[in-house]
User: What shape does this take?
Amino acid sequence: MVKDLDVPLSLKEVGISKADLETLAERTIKEWPRPNSPIELTKERVLKVYEEMYEGKLMRVNI
Assistant: This one.
């Protein structure tokens, strides 16, 4: 279905610049804090997720 609908699978495909990932990570922790999350929201963790999303890699989170 994703192929049929031509859905982008990465941040790169939707036009996000790799140079913008750090800024996106900073904005994420500032504008959308998750105080009740069992995992601390840090810039480094968010940046890692964005880097994976930029390449279109799926991540699996183990808690």
In short: The helical segments are 2-5, 21-31, 43-55. Residues 8-55 form one domain.
